[in-house]
């Protein structure tokens, strides 16, 4: 195995929720590995800013992954202007922190629609091209909430746990066609969302760090490097896995 096994030269990665946070971290690592990236999101300003920071290998589309009817046309546009999509990263999502007694069915459904239905719709739209070429990598960005019980995030936990079933089923169905499907389960990663979630809550920060064997928060590039690996030839025999990138939090005590 050589260093070139971890390169993504000639690949085109489509990253939903790619303008900020983990999505931007993954995009940066993908570009560094030689890929072109196309960032999807609902707000143009952060997408444009992200692309400017990433350079000529980066592009964006203002796109809601829940808009199923618009996705095939968006994929065709990307193929024409950037190249055929060979990597899909389902990262778009919304967070909802509320006690179960205060979580309405409407808000629960919104979380499921963005994560689960949106992730499936984007994957489904990209599959015809991947199947025709007989190759591809699909990643779902899961969560610690997929693996351990976290209070007051029942809708988010349901959505992220659904990813694990989707990964296993899709991997079993698509791997014989040359398309690998995997997931990454990030731990607590430094980001504006994490800062907002902790919001000066020192006790919660200490609780998280106390159950994280590496005793620190992760960085977006930690997730990005894992995404590069799972999408690269180095992981050519890896499919259907859920890779925690969490400093050991899912096994810590």
TrEMBL record:
A Pfam family hit: adh_short_C2
Domain Ketoreductase as annotated: residue spans: 11-191
Keyword Cell cycle tagged: no
InterPro entries recorded: KR_dom (IPR057326), NAD(P)-bd_dom_sf (IPR036291), SDR_fam (IPR002347)
Entry keyword set: Oxidoreductase
GO molecular function terms listed in the Swiss-Prot or TrEMBL record: oxidoreductase activity
UniProt KW Repressor keyword: no
Gene3D superfamilies, per the entry: NAD(P)-binding Rossmann-like Domain
EC number(s) on file: 1.1.1.-
Family: Belongs to the short-chain dehydrogenases/reductases (SDR) family.
Protein name as catalogued: SDR family NAD(P)-dependent oxidoreductase
Native organism: Natronomicrosphaera hydrolytica
């Amino acid at each position: 195995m050589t260093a070139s096994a971890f390169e993504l030269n000639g690949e085109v990665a489509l990253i939903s929720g790619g303008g900020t946070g983990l999505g931007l971290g993954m995009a940066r690592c993908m570009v560094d590995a030689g890929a072109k990236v196309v960032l999807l999101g609902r707000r143009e300003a952060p997408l444009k800013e992200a692309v400017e920071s990433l350079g000529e290998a980066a592009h964006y589309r203002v796109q809601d992954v829940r808009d199923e009817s618009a996705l095939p046309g968006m994929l065709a546009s990307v193929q024409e202007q950037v190249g055929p999509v060979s990597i899909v990263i389902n990262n778009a999502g919304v967070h909802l922190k509320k006690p179960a007694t205060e979580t309405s069915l409407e808000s629960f459904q919104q979380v499921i629609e963005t994560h689960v239905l949106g992730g499936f719709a984007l994957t489904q739209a990209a599959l015809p091209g991947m199947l025709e070429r007989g190759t591809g990598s699909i990643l779902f960005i899961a969560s610690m909430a997929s693996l351990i019980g976290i209070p007051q995030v029942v809708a988010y936990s349901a959505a992220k746990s659904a990813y694990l079933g989707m990964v296993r089923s899709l991997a079993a169905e698509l791997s014989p066609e040359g398309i690998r499907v995997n997931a990454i389960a990030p731990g607590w990663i430094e980001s504006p969302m994490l800062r907002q979630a902790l919001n000066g809550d020192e006790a919660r920060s200490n609780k998280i760090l106390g159950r994280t064997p590496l005793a620190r928060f992760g960085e977006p590039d930690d997730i990005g490097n894992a995404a590069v690996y799972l999408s690269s030839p180095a992981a050519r025999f890896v499919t259907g896995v859920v890779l925690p990138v969490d400093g050991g939090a899912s096994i810590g005590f």
